[in-house]
Amino acid sequence: MTALPTKIETLAIHGGSPVREKFLPYGRQSLDEQDVQAVVEVLRSDWLTTGPKVDEFEEQFATWVGAKHAVSFSSGTAALHGAAFAAGVGRGNEAITTPMTFCATANCVLYLEAKPVFADVSPDTLNLEPREVTKKLSSRTKAIIAVDYAGHPADLSPLNALAKQHGLALIEDACHALGAEYGGKRVGGIADMTVFSFHPVKHLTTGEGGMVTTNNTTLAETLRRFRNHGISSEARQRQQAGQWFYEMTLLGFNYRLTDFACALGISQLRKLDENLARRRTIAALYTRAFRELPGVVAPAVRDDVNPAWHLYPIRLKLEALSANRGEIFRALRAENIGVNVHYIPVHTHPYYRERFGYRGGEFPVAEDAYERLISLPMFHGMTDGDVEDVITAVSKVCEAYSR
Ligand SMILES: Cc1ncc(COP(=O)(O)O)c(C=O)c1O
Q: 48 C-alpha to center of ligand 1: Å?
């Protein structure tokens, strides 16, 4: 005999009491006094930008991810722009990418007057599906830009093989995936170039900031020039060498990351192992709780992968629910749980529809997932009580709307 259903509580959206009094955001930074002191020290020093903290951060970051070179940028978006440029993406050519991402991943191709060509995602991970990539290859393809959606590494081995076979660059947008492992190795030295973001909701923050890592010395040199106007040397190198001469050899930008941002990055890097472990614990608690909950599908994790859990996106089993994603989303918000949605597929944004004529229906896996996705709060500063509140609220709302 099945157990009698427990009492269904009135949802906050229908006038009941919310699961928690204080709103829980979906992501936020954790900064401590050491972080503050690290920044203050640099503010009192001689170098606010292009100084020694930049090299120090880059060296430590490269070592941590296991890459030869790390080149810092003023944001993840700027880092993507640099990586696409270094890969040779330019006027008239194409880069293949995923629609299930933040628009910056595809926009970097447009900045270079090239065309982003989308390929659909795998149904389990929502990462770029290599078989779909194969269908989109053309004589104009220069690069594949894969995203480690939610912190789960993309299918890097087949994508690397495809890139090699066709003479393309593989750029891994790991803005969600600092610390994620693929085949026992941290992402950062697996693709030709790997891009990270240091926005406050990420694993490590510098306020705004980004990094490209690579094992290729030529690519690293191009990236350094690109983020500094295309100039052959930086101000401190010239000052140290006692010379004024420099040359601009390519059209670059000012995409430099400041020394005080890098000092914050160095300080945050010291806590990264601990913060990653906390995110993995939170994900395990969620996954255990949702395994039994009808109405919800927990994110998949492939063998040989250890995700970094930037996001924890559940998918709703709409067939088992009497409400759609919008209603569930609003009900969870009313319970003071800061849910979010990642992502509106890029090709469905008005800019892409108008410019490229997308009508919807082109990428059925990404589009179906979008209708079901809700990102639950996920940040390393969450307490066990916060995690419990999220589980309670999701269970309460799904139960109330179960068919
Ligand atoms: C997948 C992905 N790529 C790129 C970016 C852009 O990074 P940033 O905000 O540091 O410019 C983001 C930002 O969240 C992202 O989620």
A: 25
